Hints:
A 4-stranded antiparallel sheet has the order 1-30-29-28, with no helix packed on it. Strands 2-3-4-5 form a 4-stranded antiparallel sheet, with no helix packed on it. Strands 6-7-8-9 form a 4-stranded antiparallel sheet, with no helix packed on it. It has a single domain (36-321), classed as Methylamine Dehydrogenase, Chain H, CATH 2.130.10.10. By secondary structure, the protein is mostly beta strands. It has helices at 35-40, 46-51, 53-58, and strands at 21-25, 61-68, 73-79, 86-90, 95-98, 116-118, 124-128, 146-150, 155-160, 168-174, 179-184, 189-194, 200-205, 219-220, 226-231, 245-251, 256-259, 264-265, 273-274, 276-280, 287-291, 295-299, 306-310, 323-325, 331-337, 340-347, 352-358, 370-375, 380-385, 395-399. Helices cover 4% and strands 40% of the residues. Residues 1-18 have low confidence and may be disordered.
Amino acid sequence: MDKIRRPAYFQFKGNDMSTQQVCAIKLRNHHFGNEWFDRVEDRWNYVDFLANVNWRKNWISFDGTVYCAETDRVYCGITSFDADIFKAYDRKQKRFVDLGFSRAANSYDAKFHRAMAPTKDGKTIYTATALLHDIDRYRDAPGGGIFMYDIATEQIKKLGIPIPHDYIQSIVLDEKRDVIYCAHFTPEYFSIFDLQTRQTRNVGLLGNGFAMAQGENIILDDEGCAWSGWAATRAWQENCGADSHRLCKYDPSAERIIFYDRGLPRKDGARGTAKLEGLFNFGTGCLYASGDNGSLYRIDTRSGQAVYLGTPIRKNRSRLASMVKHPDGYAYGIVGRDGHCRLLRFDPRNDNYEVGDMVIDEEGIAMWQCHDITCTPDGVLYAGENDNPYRSSYLWEIKI
């Protein structure tokens, strides 16, 4: 499943775009063969990964990607049982640089999931740590921290732990209010971390305890409200029902979470809602979302009403975890999964999209699935691959 012999260049269908060049950039490059399926899946616990040097050090994912023009580096949030989770890819030197996170880390700080937020002036990146351990370590693990990385001095500082023992899946920075909104796991609290006082306000819960309610990220709309998914409980039933997954937003003017009784429509038109995956703001006054096998949606931020736009890939398993606005006016993401990934181009001006050919490098190596994507001013995309059961995940460079 690792290598699929296909051309390294492709074109979008139906337009005159030039060929795309794809390169897999390797921080780690360990191949596990079928060990995941034969030995690990449904068998190993947290301690088993810690005890095995190959899985502890080499089974990594690129869960977050952020570009900084000042340094011309792509800052990468890594998932690692070894807590080695903060690197930068230097485009000039064409190599990875360690950012010294070990000086501030705890051994339970296992990943920057979708929790890297750069300031608009390009001087600082705020980050937060997520978990890999189980709840039997809840009291041992101190909790996800908020960190501040100074890009010029390359110093990283821990600002605090918003909720003791609880970890942070995603953050979004509100520079106007000087706060960081945090979506936690587990439990799925929603909190507000004040960067001046370093105090936390626990606003409430997003999840119902039956299934994960939040998507891969949280995001601000144009009014400064922070959006997420939530899940209804229906305590009088044995299951939560087909419409349990819904949308919500924290409204800073009301100082509370507004829980909508609606979510993303199912792609087949059946009754119920789809689980949220990604949230995107392209500056058009609305938000966009993904879910239900990588389907696309447009969200009215006043009513919380979501409109189904289409499913780029229907026949195979797919996802659309991240999209980024490109200098050409389009937004780009990666759809597909299981080694069958394709570049998606979306036009937020008219809600149209096109799907390109498979993302494969010149050696015939295919991307397994994409978790985050960023873009440089010269139009190069950097996509973070995650959760590959066959090998270490890579950072992917896609030149348009």
